[in-house]
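Summary of Year 1 activities. Much of the first year was spent building the evaluation harness for sequence design. The harness presents a backbone, in tokenized form, and records the residue chosen at every position. We chose the following record to illustrate the format because it has been used consistently in internal testing since the harness was completed.
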């Protein structure tokens, strides 16, 4: 026998609402994105520590669960979404995990072959230039590119395009040697 309505009618139920999601933008340099970076963001006077994974891409967003706005009536907190803006502070062009660069070689090295040293993101590398290398030739250095996001130990490739520099300010003797070569 019920009087005045169903049981528990006197209790009001509070609906739990999830907190608001927050969005932030973080700018880092390309050379900093080659290894994990510890960062601290201040959101609503709270310091949030997190690690930026190596290989993060420009425009990529990561989610930090539960670091958004507080929930209502005991609901869960929202999430924090961080979008990355990568500034290229290197001499490389990045496409995905691959890097592209140019290396100048002199005419003599292009014709006769030889060794040159180039910079990579992981240090200097010595290359053997093959004899008769043409201007615009491209070589691939496997595994010398950018780290693959969330795949430790995996890297893209580095592509080097050779630019042959023609000598200027030739002496009379050098000019005559080129003239002799042209007659062959």
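For this record, the design step produced the sequence shown next.
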């Amino acid at each position: 026998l019920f009087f005045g309505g169903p049981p528990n009618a006197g209790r009001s139920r509070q609906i739990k609402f999830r907190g608001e999601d927050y969005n932030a933008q973080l700018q880092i340099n390309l050379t900093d994105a080659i290894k994990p970076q510890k960062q601290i963001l201040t959101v609503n006077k709270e310091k949030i520590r997190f690690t930026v994974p190596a290989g993060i891409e420009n425009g990529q967003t990561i989610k930090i669960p539960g670091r958004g706005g507080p929930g209502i009536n005991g609901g869960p907190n929202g999430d924090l979404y961080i979008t990355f803006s990568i500034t290229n502070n290197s001499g490389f062009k990045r496409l995905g995990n691959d890097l592209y660069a140019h290396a100048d070689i002199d005419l003599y090295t292009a014709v006769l072959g030889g060794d040159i040293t180039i910079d990579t993101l992981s240090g200097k590398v010595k290359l053997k230039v093959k004899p008769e290398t043409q201007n615009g030739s491209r070589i691939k250095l496997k595994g010398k590119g950018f780290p693959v996001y969330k795949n430790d130990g995996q890297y893209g490739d580095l592509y080097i395009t050779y630019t042959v520099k023609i000598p200027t300010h030739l002496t009379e003797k050098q000019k005559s040697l080129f003239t002799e070569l042209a007659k062959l």
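DSSP finds two helices and eleven strands in the chain. Quantitative recovery figures across the full test set are reported in Table 2.
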